[in-house]
């Protein structure tokens, strides 16, 4: 993972408020994206008022051990019409979002974790 070099707009990823900023910023990009928005909005018909708090809990649990996430993320993705292109694009947008806001060890960790989650899901879907 390439470490970002723009310290002016970045800060350390330190807790729940930062996770919320990351998730909100990322999913705004997803909603504006021509590749991912149709999957989330047209096919999956994501209820964003429900989904975003789940994602806050997921990433807070992954990064800071809050243990607030209860669920299994993979099954929700198994029925989606997604390809390696979707996963690659998801990872690219995620890393771009992290780099726009954060720097430091937790920022690098969240990028690596996102990449590994995408790889795991692709493997389970038989895409790799």
Write a concise keyword list for the protein shown above:
two-stranded parallel ribbon; mainly alpha; 66% helix; 2 strands
Largest beta sheet, briefly? 2 strands, parallel
Unreliable parts: none
Principal-axes shape call = globular
What string, H for helix and E for strand, traces the elements in order?
Answer: EHHHHHEH
Helix content: 55-70%
- Supply the number of helical segments: 6
| Proportion of strand residues | under 5%
Q: What distance lies between the first and last C-alpha atoms, to the nearest angstrom? A: 20 Å
Measured on Cα atoms, how large is the radius of gyration? 14 Å
Strand order of the largest sheet: 1-2
- The total strand number stands at 2
Which secondary-structure class do the elements indicate?
mainly alpha
